[in-house]
Amino acid sequence: MKSSNSHTPDCPSAAVIYADSLSNRGGTGVYLKRLLEGFDQCDASVFAIIGRELMTPAQALSCKIFGGSIRKVINENSIRSSLTASISPSIVHLPAFSGRALKSVPCAVTLHDLAFCRNPSWFPPLRSVYYRLHFRKVAGKADVIIVDSESTAEGARKYLGIEDKRIRKVYLSTDSFKADPDVFRNAFPVQGKYIVFAGTIEPRKNIPALLDSWQIVNRIHTDLRLVIAGRWGWGPAALRRRLADTEGVLLSGPLSENMLKSCISGAELLVYPSLYEGFGLPPLEAASAGVPSVVTPASALKEIYSGISIVSEGFDPDSISESILHSLESKHDSEALIDFAAGFSNERMAREVLKVYEEFRI
Length: 362
What we know:
Blueprint: E1 15-18, H1 27-42, E2 46-50, E3 53-55, H2 57-61, H3 69-76, H4 81-84, E4 91-94, E5 107-111, H5 115-118, H6 125-141, E6 144-147, H7 150-160, E7 167-169, H8 182-187, E8 194-198, H9 207-220, E9 225-229, H10 237-245, E10 249-253, H11 257-265, E11 270-272, H12 281-288, E12 293-295, H13 299-305, E13 310-311, H14 317-328, H15 334-342, H16 346-358
Parallel strand pairs: 1-2, 1-4, 4-5, 5-6, 6-7, 8-9, 9-10, 11-12, 12-13
Antiparallel strand pairs: 2-3
């Protein structure tokens, strides 16, 4: 395989992807990082734009990105025609469903979910309005919409009026999350068995129901702990206090990638009680470490994980606790979980996105 640095700016019909979202701590940043890693593995004719620089995927992945969300929004919405003139891009890809395409160049947009349309109250008011207005505008101008699941495709049709001919489904990916669990145990006061939730804490993640279900589970498994691994996003201050005060619950805060892998690897199972997802990465990441999951019957979670995870009957505490107890009392095939996750590699995702790009090659 040739190095990605072997590409030169005179490469014909290269694709261009906006990469300022690498600075995102959430799912869009993870998606972009893994997609660029896949492009690098494929030695693909793809260039990334960060700020005012055009670079290979490998260079983008090693680039330190400075500035906050305001700078990122400015960069994503800047016209970069002068940067891309030398490579004659066949397509411009906006991976975080924001930004601005180049004139007379086909545009691909990745749509991760329709939560902002499904339930605007899940978001702070200004963010909700921005998503609903701006995303509809971007979608209307895109030549092709890449979605994370059939569930997201259905939402794109229903809420944004996107025609089937413009939709391409490409599932997300993960690398291996198998890691030494002692790294997490040595850093946090967790020595016995624990279950884990991983993700940003926000309303659609259904954390109150998880805490209610935890009280039921903990009455039976008194030596078990619940780890909430992730950063605080937004929501009622009362929930934040409850997370800090509930007996048996450890709120870790944001974890580094290596620490998160260690945390998940040492868990008895991962619980993902979300009310809605476009894909839902944590259960896939847990599977790559051989760790089973309990998920709710959100349509994307059922679509992707029904054959490998325990799916609760509902989103309520009783349904979630029943599924957790069932999982704790069941035997799980770790190798089958790892094999399942291996089918969602970064290279596989990148090659499927490249097939979308190929539709616009001159």
